[in-house]
Amino acid sequence: AAACLDAGAQASLNRYIAANPQDPCGYLMLAVVHGFAGRTEDARRAVAKAVEQKGDLDQQQVRRSNRYRDPTRPERMIAVLNAAGLPP
After folding, report:
1. Which of 35, 46, 77, 85 is a plausible cystine mate for 30, CB 3.0–4.6 Å?
2. For 31-56, what is each residue's pLDDT tens digit?
3. d(Cα 45, Cα 68) in Å, to the nearest integer?
4. Rounded Cα gap, residues 29 and 17, in angstroms
5. Are 63 and 40 in contact, with CB atoms under 8 Å apart?
6. What's the rounded Cα separation, in Å, for the pair 61 and 84?
7. How far apart are CA 32 and CA 61, in angstroms?
8. CA dist., res. 16 & res. 14, Å (int)
9. DSSP-assigned letters across all residues of 10-28
10. What's this model's pTM, rounded to 2 decimal places?
């Protein structure tokens, strides 16, 4: 079941990226999906693409733009993005 959700998330994000290629958010979310699935190199490529779209993108911007009731959720996401090379 998890593999199906992962594939669905990737497909949705790839459609979003195709429709909005200049928006780094799609690439960051794709990096998170890849990172949680253990595909570090794919996550790194997605982060590199996001940074290519917005050169000053960093973890602090991601923290400010993602608010959750559960504070552990954004920290798990930041940990994945950090491992994929998103600057602090």
Report:
1. 46
2. 999 999 999 999 999 999 999 999 99
3. 26
4. 10
5. no
6. 16
7. 15
8. 5
9. HHHHHHHHHH-TT-HHHHH
10. 0.87
